[in-house]
Write a structure and sequence with these properties.
heterodimer, A: alpha/beta, Aspartate Aminotransferase, domain 1, Aspartate Aminotransferase, domain 2, 2 domains, seven-stranded mixed sheet, four-stranded antiparallel sheet, B: alpha+beta, Sufe protein. Chain: A, three-stranded antiparallel sheet, 3 strands, globular, binds pyridoxal-5'-phosphate
């Protein structure tokens, strides 16, 4: 029996006590960043108050505690995504963007030759496009795109042809603009059938549905702590252990070496090879608490609840403002998460967001770092509302009320 | 708290709904593009400059109400003026849109000889919404660039 209660999550999340323009905050920007619950904030506080020390090189007690916390986070986040051997598979980075840069700069630069192809999709975030274009400019690789259909889903009719000559298929589990959820295991299998590896951008999915890298059969997975109720400043790069072991270091410095002499250096083994310098230890403590918190909620429960709320949101938007507001994303809640990119007829997204702010409603106007996708649909920008495990029906009611006000103001 | 009415004055909404001097100028002496990469706003300014006078100006592009209204008001304010007067209006507008380090802005000095001064003053409320300042200034920066090109 489900014990999941979004109101409980809301009580746990301090930002919800904020009042904006005399109204309680209506936070609908979780696709940009989720709000941390108190246990996450307290874990970071506790770390700085009771344990802070640099990791790995210490002998004294608190240094060992800090190391345990940091390595514990690696283990816990690994288990959270079904990683068989976190100690040899999880690299901590700064964010999803850095994880993709690590993939491109280390694995990509060591593996890809001129003419090799990296396949991405038209619905990718710039984080999974620009690093490949950088390699294209430097090494003459080819970057290819899987198109998106008019119904906002990937067009897979030509996938076999597109996969010819591909070394890596890198795609998102869920679009941060459309809300579309892609058939990850199916796409990974298609990549493997063509001898390509598969990388998954899990930034939008990891905090909202269960993740199992084994069931996906993926080779690389990238995501950010701050989109799963954790802190900013910490990203995760998961790779199959054998692939990670073969990747050369990307950033050089302290912490990533086995030996340094005056005539060269020997990199460390395992994930620390990619973690040069003092890592974000407090953030790792926060991520660990976020993982524990999400596990306590139950990702199946969160996913089921957000699915119901997504259905309701699509209904409310259609019945409340459907004559003036187009949702740029799948019209039904099947294989779709709680992200709603809104195109309001006659009102620019900036103006939409400005009026919504007056109602305490936080949405994001812009291209959402997915310009190829925006261009595909002939849009410069949308106003995007998105859900989290603390979102309520009342948030959607205020959203519709505020949208009506924006439409009225601009006539 | 900054009030929405400070931003969306009636005159601003009027320029947004019925922008002045929209379109292209086939016989333009210069054509200059402006972009706001953050919001995707785009603007093209066509000018006819002759004998030190900005004889005609037209604009195309898309953007939010503030950027559209600001470019429309700008076109009314500068059309037919001598270039030094145009530059003066641009300077005054930019001063009005400048936020000091303490978060305050200068009120626009009254200048009755500027035909559309009252209209432009309606944009003064934008400084209370700092993220929107770049929306209001896009057209003006692009015009300044167009004048530099036209007189280079
Ligand atoms: C699908 C997707 N990929 C990548 C990113 C980049 O994440 P970050 O900004 O944490 O690097 C985001 C977040 O904006 C995203 O939604």
């Amino acid at each position: 029996m489900s014990s999941f209660d979004p109101r409980r999550v809301r009580i746990d999340t301090p930002v919800f006590s904020r009042v904006i323009n005399d109204r309680p905050i209506v936070y609908l920007d979780s696709a940009s960043s989720t709000l941390p619950p108190r246990p996450v904030i307290e874990a970071m506080d506790r770390y700085y108050s009771g344990h802070h020390a640099n990791v790995h090189r210490g002998v004294y007690q608190t240094a060992n505690e800090a190391t345990d916390i940091y390595e514990g986070a690696r283990r816990d986040v690994g288990h959270f995504i079904g990683a068989p051997d976190p100690r040899h598979e999880i690299v901590f980075t700064k964010n999803t963007t850095e994880s993709f840069n690590l993939l491109a700069r280390s694995w990509g630069a060591a593996t890809l030759r001129p003419g090799d192809v990296v396949l991405v999709t038209e619905m990718e975030h710039h984080a999974n496009i620009v690093p490949w274009f950088q390699l294209q400019a430097e090494r003459g690789i080819e970057v290819r795109f899987v198109p998106v259909r008019d119904d906002f889903r990937l067009d897979l009719t030509d996938l076999d042809r597109l996969l010819a000559g591909v070394k890596l298929f890198s795609f998102t589990a869920m679009s941060n603009v459309l809300g579309t959820r892609n058939p990850v295991a199916e796409l990974v299998a298609a990549a493997h059938a063509h001898g390509a590896l598969a990388a998954v951008d899990a930034a939008q999915s990891v905090g909202h549905q269960p993740t199992d890298v084994g069931a996906w059969d993926a080779d690389f997975v990238c995501f950010s702590a701050h989109k799963m109720l954790g802190p900013t400043g910490l990203g995760i790069f998961w790779a199959r252990a054998d692939l990670l072991e073969a990747m050369p270091p990307f950033l050089g410095g302290g912490g990533m070496i086995a030996d340094v002499r005056t005539d060269g250096f020997v990199p460390a083994h395992g994930p620390t090879r990619f973690e040069a310098g003092t890592p974000p230890i407090a953030e790792a403590a926060g991520l660990r608490a976020a993982v524990r918190y999400l596990t306590g909620l139950g990702l199946d429960e969160v996913s089921r609840y957000e699915h119901e709320l997504t259905e309701l949101a699509l209904e409310l938007l259609a019945s409340g403002v459907g004559d003036r507001v187009r949702v740029i994303g799948p019209a039904d809640a099947v294989d779709r998460g709680g992200v709603f990119s809104l195109d309001v007829e006659g009102v620019h997204p900036h103006d939409v967001a400005q009026v919504l702010d007056q109602f305490g409603v936080c949405v994001r106007p812009g291209h959402h770092c997915a310009k190829p996708l925006m261009r595909r649909f002939g849009l410069a920008a949308t106003a995007r509302a998105s859900l989290g495990p603390y979102s309520l029906r009342s948030d959607l009611d205020v959203l519709v009320e505020a949208l009506l006000a924006a439409i009225k103001l601009f006539g | 708290m900054a009030n929405l009415d400070d931003l969306y004055r009636e005159i601003i909404l009027d320029h947004y709904r019925s922008p002045r001097n929209r379109g292209e100028l086939v016989e333009a002496t210069s054509r200059t593009e402006g972009f706001n990469p953050l919001c995707g706003d785009e603007l093209v300014i066509y000018l006819i400059v002759r004998d030190g006078v900005l004889e005609d100006i037209k604009l195309t592009g898309h953007g939010c109400s503030i950027s559209q209204a600001s470019s429309s008001m700008m076109s009314s304010a500068v059309k037919g003026k001598r270039l030094e007067d145009v530059r003066h209006v641009i300077d005054r507008f930019k001063t009005m849109m400048t936020l000091h380090d303490d978060g305050t802005a200068d009120a626009p000095a009254p200048e009755p000889d500027l035909r559309s001064d009252g209209e432009l003053a309606a944009l003064a409320g934008v400084v209370k919404f700092p993220v929107r300042i770049k929306c209001a200034t896009l057209a003006w920066n692009t015009l300044a660039q167009a004048l530099d090109e036209a007189t280079a």
